[in-house]
Amino acid sequence: MLTTATILSPRELFNAVSDNACSEQGVRMSAMDSSSRNAGEMLARLTLTYNRMRQASITKELIEIISGASALGG
Q1: How the protein sits in the membrane (predicted)?
Q2: Number of domains observed in the structure of the chain
């Protein structure tokens, strides 16, 4: 019975295995690059949301302080 290992020469078999390993590493690098980029974008969106919520809270507190001062006749 013929198998791939008996049909290919040792050099061809080594090249096939090493090409497969290189391809796998290339795909992993691409996936990690994409993940890193996505994480950076998510962090930017979350930072923007946090800053907007913080700003809204500060604005609300200032309005309450000003309203209280106005009610006291200041």
Answers
A1: Peripheral membrane protein
A2: 1
